[in-house]
Design goal:
3-stranded mixed beta sheet; Spore Coat Polysaccharide Biosynthesis Protein SpsA, Chain A; about 280 residues; 7-stranded mixed beta sheet; alpha/beta
């Protein structure tokens, strides 16, 4: 396991089927990552828990309801904050990730040797003023004055964040506090996690962080042109400039990429890691 013994990957699969988790888990293990993986699951997901145990994943039973806690993809930050705070002496680096639409092409901690949180940008040239979905969320959760402050910022995705345990604890606790402070009627809406993540990145800057361009370590495909990505001869996702990012997010939004990834990680086929980008 080597240095992976001091690393942790965190995800949330509450309400997910094995088929929605399998590519994430199997690509993670195929990348060579041998460290701990912790997954939030619902209290009655026995089949999923059995599958995860076979792949060396520990599960934490998590009860949540949108009416009280908001969407699980936002509420998870409160759970993650407590877990990482309690584990500060156990791990040096932590990666939190979406699960259903993320897969790994190389080791997820490759090149991560300094402790600051990495905030990964989405596609250029979109900003909160110009991208319709993110603009709607920003106007929902921010005051008009605060929307103006964030409107010219590029969009950073909160679906994948990685860093040292100390900075990640500070980040997660800030996110958890902001999300928990929302009135219930807003807490039930989607998108708050993205907005508060970007508020930290663009305005507060109170967490030790660095902002990383899209398609380097992480490729977030959702708002990039579909022509930005091809499938290489090794069946890996390749960017227009020939890179194979270690982590691919929102791959299910690009039909030709989704088809290739599902074929590559078909249940009976092995999935070797990709060459470096």
């Amino acid at each position: 396991m080597g240095t992976d013994g001091r690393r942790l990957v965190l995800g949330a699969a509450v309400g997910f089927r094995v088929s929605q988790v399998r590519i994430f888990i199997e690509s993670l293990r195929a990348s060579g990552y041998g460290g701990d993986v912790l997954m939030l699951v619902g209290p009655f997901q026995w089949r999923l828990c059995a599958y995860l145990r076979r792949h060396g994943v520990r599960t934490i039973s998590t009860w949540s309801t949108r009416k009280l806690h908001g969407p699980i993809h936002a509420y998870r930050f409160e759970k993650f904050a407590k877990l990482v705070r309690a584990a500060q002496g156990r791990y040096d680096y932590v990666l939190i990730s979406d699960v259903r639409d993320v897969f790994f092409q190389r080791h997820p901690f490759e090149g991560i040797i300094t402790p600051e949180c990495r905030f990964y940008l989405e596609g250029a040239p979109w900003t909160f003023a110009t991208e319709p979905v993110n603009r709607r969320w920003a106007k929902m959760f921010l005051s008009p004055a605060d929307f103006q402050r964030i409107s010219t910022c590029r969009i950073s995705c909160c679906g994948v964040v990685v860093g040292g345990t100390g900075p990640m604890t500070a980040y997660l606790e800030r996110m958890a506090a902001d999300l928990h402070a929302l009135p219930l009627r807003l807490r039930r809406e989607g998108g708050a996690d993205t907005i508060f993540h970007n508020w930290i990145a663009c305005v507060r800057r109170e967490v030790d962080l660095t902002i990383v361009e899209n398609n380097l370590h992480v490729a977030t495909l959702g708002i990039e042109p579909t022509s930005s990505y091809t499938i290489g001869s090794d069946q890996c996702v390749v960017t227009a400039d020939g890179r194979a990012p270690a982590i691919c997010h929102q791959y299910d939004r690009v039909p030709h990429i989704l088809k290739a990834v599902e074929a590559r990680f078909a249940p009976t086929l092995p999935s070797p890691p990709c060459a470096g980008g």
